Amino acid sequence: MGNQDNRKVYEDIRAHGHLIDSDILSRIMGGIVELDGEYEVLSLDIGRGNENPSTMVMRVFGRDHAHLASMLGMLHGLGVAPVHSCDATTQPAPADGVFPEGFYATTNLPTQVRLGGQWRDVPNEEMDLGLVVAPDGASVAGVPVAEVRAGDAVVVGQDGIRVTFQERPRQKEAFEFMNSTASSEKPKSQIIRQVASLLREVRDQGRDVVAVVGPAIVHTGAAGDLIRLVRGGYVTVLFGGNAVATHDIESALFGTSLGIDLATGLSVPSGHEHHLRAINRIRACGSIAGAVEQGVLTEGLMHALVETGTPFVLAGSIRDDGPLPDVITDTVRAQEAMRPWCQKAGACLMMSTMLHSIATGNMLPASVTTICVDINPAVVTKLADRGSFQTVGIITDVGLFLKSLADELGC
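Given the sequence above, the corresponding structure tokens read:
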């Protein structure tokens, strides 16, 4: 990688797409300057209209090969590829669960790998995986580090790899919605109408809507509105933890959440024990579905999920009481259960749960429209900082949001 003239090493790169109105061109140039590099535009063919793509060829100069490699790594995530492509390089995994040094770490963007002179699509784009080439050399797949096996042919470096940057939608309404920043001052009624329109479109396409929810859904009294979305077919799979399921079941059995009466907002005698008693009762039934079948659990969000046959994945944490028998306590197994739903999702609603939202965001392709609703703007910021740049943030109370959304959808 890298050529050399009398000044420094360089590489010629090509970018293609809606470079100007998607802000890709300025990000390419700005990124090179920020990394103390230099560039020279060799050619720039600007599309004649809004729907026409542009093509640019640029020479990027670095102080040395390491400096050039760092810039090319940054540009790679913007969909930039070297002009002179070569096949990808592989090295064998040294042991089970270990990638070779210098392995290529994937993004959540559509990716292709050049094998035997042909570009091969990487199925199911997801960030933070390695790329393993099949033994016949004709296909490639993204693999979590825990699943790689000794001797697997793992792609190293960036040669022979290209990604397609996620451009801005061309439709005006979607354009404005997808590029709005997280703000508590944006008109909520307009945003909710756009979210409702998105969910209708995804449902009509027969695709899944993943809802990632935290216990605030129950604490704020919004579980009933989420149930309306489930029964209306606007939520087709739910991700959460032990807490949201436990407090939903607590509210169904005792009318409290964290020992607070949901009707009056007042604490009740011995209410702090209710979540433990709820867990114990479900464990005695063997599972949440078992509690529904036995008539122990007759209402609430978890009851509605079982009754409608809506799948759910509950991923545990070290702080869990119990936990409920349905909670997956092995984090690798929890990822394995969540990943297939993420890869085929049409949209994702993340509501009042930072850790589960970030975990889900790490497994979502960049093409999946993701709406994060939280009273804390830092949650949306953290998602974007960790690569889920497709996330649209709505800073508001989740209870008010869910009620308004269910009303807008006529559930």
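The radius of gyration is 24 Å. Try to locate this feature in the token string yourself.
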